[in-house]
């Protein structure tokens, strides 16, 4: 439900800000094993392995993967992209 709200919010804000030629997009990150997540889960490494097994792309998601998506939206490559939500989760969302 939260990703759906992110999608809707990005679209609404894009319509509003587009009048001023401002792009609005959302990056929706998947599960990443960070020190915070590791502290939350009893066995962070086992949790991470379960996430990898559920993804279409069978490798670890890193903060750089999320940063690359943000970078794409910051570059001229995405000048005509607005109101979009990009799931960066290795295919977990649709799997």
Task: Compile the SSE list and pairings.
Layout lengths: L1 H17 L7 E4 L5 H6 L3 H11 L8 H12 L10 E4 L7
What does this structure look like?
The two termini are 16 Å apart. It contains four helices and two strands. The protein is elongated and about 50 Å long. It has a single domain (2-88), classed as NAD(P)-binding Rossmann-like Domain (Rossmann fold). With 95 residues, the chain is mainly α.
**How far is the N terminus from the C terminus?**
16 Å
Profile the largest sheet.
2 strands, parallel
Q: What letter string, H or E per element, gives the SSE order?
A: HEHHHE
SS-based structural class?
mainly alpha
Gross CATH architecture: 3-Layer(aba) Sandwich
The CATH homologous superfamily: NAD(P)-binding Rossmann-like Domain
Helix content: 40-55%
**Strand order in the largest sheet:** 1-2
- CATH level-1 class: Alpha Beta
- By DSSP (H or I, 4+ residues per run), the number of helices equals 4
Question: How much of the residues is beta strand, in percent?
Answer: 5-15%
The CATH topology is Rossmann fold
Q: Can you count the beta strands?
A: 2
Average pLDDT, rounded to a whole number, is 88
List the uncertain runs.
none
Gross geometry:
elongated
Short description:
This protein is mainly alpha-helical and 95 residues long. 48% of the residues lie in helices and 8% in strands. A two-stranded parallel ribbon has the order 1-2.
List keywords for this structure.
single chain, 95 residues, mainly alpha, Rossmann fold, two-stranded parallel ribbon, 4 helices, 2 strands, elongated
